[in-house]
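Subject: complex prediction, re-run

Hi both,

The earlier run crashed halfway through, so I resubmitted it with identical inputs.
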Amino acid sequence: MSFEAEAMIIKEIEARFHGAVIEAKVQRKRRIAIEAGKEWMRDIAKYLKERFDFAIVVSVSAIDLVQERQFAIVYHLWSPSHRNLTALRTKVPKDSARAISLTPLFESANWHEREAHELYGIEFDGHPDLGRLLLPEDWNGGFPFRKDFKLAE
Amino acid sequence: MRRNANRRRAYTVSHSIFQVRDLLRCFRHSSCSYIDFYGCVLKLCNSIHRHRICFCSDHRFSVSLLLEVFSRRNGLTSRLTCLPLVGKMFDWGRASSLWPVHIATGCCSPEEMALVSPRYDVERFGVLPLPALRQCDLLIVLGLVTHKMAKRVKLIYEQMPDPKYVMAVGACAISGGLFWDSYNVIKGIDRILPVDVYVPGCPARPEAFIQGIRLLQEKIKRGPSK
Amino acid sequence: MSTIRLNWGPQHPITGHLRFILDIDGDIVVRATPDIGYTHRGIEKLAENRNYVQIIPLVERICNVDSFNVSLGYVSAVEDILGIEPPIRARFIRVIMAELNRIMSHLYWLAIFGVAAGLFTLIMWPIADRELFIDLAEMVTGSRVTYTYFTPGGVYTDLPEEFSERTLKTLDYFEKRLKDYETIFLHNKLYQMRTVDVGILSFNDALKFGVAGPSLRGSGAKIDVRQDEPYAAYDAVEFEVPVEASGDSYARAKIRFSEMKQSVSIVRQALKQLPSGPIRVKMPSVVLEGEAYTRVESGRGELGCYLVSNGRTQPERLKLSTPSFRNVSALAYMLRGVKVADVPIIYHSMDIWPLDADR
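This time it finished cleanly. Structure:
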């Protein structure tokens, strides 16, 4: 099965951000995945927004990669006109978990990043308000979504 | 407080105490008998009938006050057992008009909506969900309770007037249910509140819910309330 | 300027399990801060402690009035990773049950709208009509709200023989009822006074805040997952996606009414075309490795399920991007500058289910 529309997007991204993109591939129909360093995230997201109309951040997921001692942060962006979902992924070290916030570009990323901050402890530079969202006000039990936080047996 | 449709005049609660003041005279110096007590209640009912005002809350308060004084004077521990008939009447009234506070804590809450629906119609048992918790006597904990919500549920329970009852509905309210290993879910509402009836299910079916209400009604009619 | 701080919820019949902190100056809301997390169970973390089949009932309890659609997102993600496709009969059954669930979800919304607007008939009628659809779901699955019926590879049991006839009867009755609802409520001057030009969300703001579902389509954006990337058997049925341009609460209500009509038509088409055959494929005995992001259109809007697996019996990460979470974040902006009496109407027109937002 050929995914021409998806391949076209990847080709343009790789041409524009040559050297910055670690990996870019077509996963299946309407799904592409791009991985880049954290300092490139805002530029790539801005290009996706302006060139391909990726207008909405539908999800921001953080994944605790225990063996690599890193957090993977995956932004899923949807383009209504191209009907394509792109997973924009970056990795930050666990010891100094700081990422660059995409909220100034996409207001729809605001609460998703706030949630990732609260549950994983990742700092998002440039985020307007990383306050409490889901956990109780007096919560001091750590970051529950990290793998070293054990649930009851 | 305002009484019935007469919105212009305000009555104070102390009125109900003054009403029984001369009736209490018979209790003061000697131990009194059932006959003395019934006599006082009859006098009170007479005065209500004379003034043509309905048996509203401050008159219930007057009778409760008489009951309280009578039982303490005669060294009785439970004022309801001293007057079985009146106590039973109050219990029947309370059981037939359980008004739950509208507090949705978890995913069993749509089933409470189904209870109110024409099919299950829980209002025929006298149950009327009410948002105003000062007039309610039943706290139905519907589903899971998180640590954040638990503080509010406790606050609501403390604000409700006595006597009050708690019903734990759903597996999550009874023991944490499907989320037993969650870091944010209380493993059973009976860790923070005294529960009277447990209704199992995930979510509890409306039929089980109605059976829970019937069990609570029988419990109230059976004995003294907390 | 001195304002009064009003705590709206969580003990309130309209907000349900969430709170708004409203700063009010006279009759106008100056600032609204949503406070969620009263039903946060950490379902995504709990999923890392369960195997892939045990996660299905867990995911369903995110939105139990709409659990067919929610569980469909998750089982589709598992199927995507495994590279399997359910049989054609199962795909049609999924469409039928998903659309019946959409009708149930919208009727529940309509009933709670009655609570918000203070129209008591509007509470009783939809709740009673919803019971007819619950009966249909109970006939198939045995359960009233959380069904655990969709499974990776297909569905658990086949439809009973009398299901088709009974469903068509229910739909005939419901179509007449929808006309009644429109006449008595949608075209009612009182209802219109309370909802027209109330809580306007423009097209640009709707995309900016990332709202989903009827709230997005009410602002003129024609985005519906069933047509953008058809899943199950949605490519085999014809239906319209209602869109309104005004962006007010009335537009969002009109869209939900239209969606119910479209759902009736979809179920009729699917029942007519329902092919015979198996309802489930045999699952390959391999462990899952890979990742997938599936989108489904639930009653409240687009639900995204991101599943990452690494060869173990439990997932590495399950992330659910729920429509209510996206819509609540927009409310902080939408409730600014409105009258206090309009706040329940605006809140409710966005159809927030707090359990969906908190997960």
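Residues 4-95 of chain A form a domain with the Beta Polymerase; domain 2 fold (CATH 3.30.460.80).

- K.
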